[in-house]
Specification:
Blueprint lengths: L1 H16 L9 H13 L15 H20 L26 H17 L5 H20 L3 H6 L5 E2 L4 E4 L1 E4 L7 E4 L6 E4 L2 H21 L27 H12 L9 H12 L4 H8 L4 H32 L1
Antiparallel strand pairs: 1-2, 2-5, 3-4
Length: 324
């Protein structure tokens, strides 16, 4: 996060504002920069033009700028926050994308098929398939974030009680190895894992141990399985947080399944939990949301789906009436 802030501030804002003190920067100056980012008329420090940015990206950049002025105001470096008077583009509401029941069934069936088909293949091949199945089941049954899954260690899993401790989040800075920090909301949580998910995790753990023994000194992970990461590269090395996304995309393409973002599995988990009658507060806690407001997006989507279902049922009744 720090590196991203630094990159944006140095490439976007410092070239045109760096010669001014914070107190000298006017609202209209900042507004022109924000507008130019939306229109694609802005040029970076190296003279290269910036493509028109999506509203969400512009707002993200603006929030970075606001954090600078807020801190300066807190430290009494400036008397007012210039950024408070800025206007920013409206982010269009995006409908939450989830797998429907038919798509979900096909995907889970494909996961099983890939594991069975590769049973007789080298350990390096089958172990990857087994790991992917465990990973996806973990997403679908606990709603963990990608970064949280990558940060998990085997000591976080209690197979006897069917519990999973989520306390860290993985991240990677350019040119450095994967590291961990606290979760997005800064809090630890304990998730319950289903019997089937636990079985897939245990299967993967057994394969990972076999793989460690097979590689011997070439194994780059922990020698003690309990202290090692759950999801790793084939040689045991710490996984880059973006790898699960790449693995999932490749899996969907191999099996000719509709493309869906890996993060959408988290949306799928939340939607099905709410649809099955679990209250919003419980789902919010399971997802590690900071507030119920974030979780309520799924509630609104469910309302939209109920409306669609009602209209479809009404159309069915009308057809039956015509046929009578």
């Amino acid at each position: 996060m720090f590196e991203e802030y630094k990159r944006v501030l140095c490439n976007i804002f410092v070239p045109v504002l760096g010669h001014l003190s914070l107190g000298e920067i006017k609202v209209q100056t900042l507004q022109r920069i924000i507008n130019s980012l939306s229109s694609g008329q802005y040029k970076k420090a190296d003279g290269k033009p910036v493509k028109p940015l999506a509203p969400a990206s512009v707002v993200r950049y603006e929030n970075m700028l606001k954090s600078v002025f807020s801190e300066a105001y807190r430290l009494e470096i400036i008397e007012k926050k210039t950024t408070d008077r800025l206007e920013f583009p409206t982010i269009p509401k995006q409908k939450t994308v989830v797998y429907n029941k038919q798509e979900l069934g096909k995907m889970l069936s494909a996961l099983d098929s890939e594991v069975e088909i590769n049973r007789d293949k080298p350990l390096s091949v089958i172990s990857v398939k087994v790991m992917l199945r465990a990973l996806i089941w973990l997403y679908l049954t606990t709603g963990v974030r990608r970064s949280e899954a990558v940060a998990l260690k085997w000591c976080d899993v209690n197979f006897d009680n069917g519990l999973l401790d989520v306390s860290k989040s993985a991240y990677k800075l350019k040119g450095e190895t994967t590291q961990t920090k606290s979760t997005k909301n800064g809090e630890e949580r304990t998730e319950e894992i289903s019997v089937e998910c636990a079985a897939y995790l245990q299967e993967w753990k057994d394969y990972q141990i076999q793989r460690r023994l097979e590689l011997g000194t070439a194994w780059r992970g922990e020698s003690n399985p309990q202290k090692g990461s759950i999801f790793t590269a084939v040689d045991g090395a710490v996984m880059c947080p973006t790898v699960p996304t790449e693995m999932f995309s490749d899996f969907l393409e191999r099996n000719d399944l509709p493309h869906i973002k890996l993060h959408a599995l988290r949306h799928t988990f939340a939607t099905y939990m709410l649809n099955s009658g679990v209250n919003v507060k419980t789902v919010s806690e399971m997802l590690g949301h900071k507030s119920l407001k974030v979780t309520n997006r799924y509630v609104h989507d469910l309302k939209d789906r109920r409306k669609e279902s009602t209209e479809q049922l009404s159309a069915l009744y009308s057809d039956l009436k015509k046929q009578a």
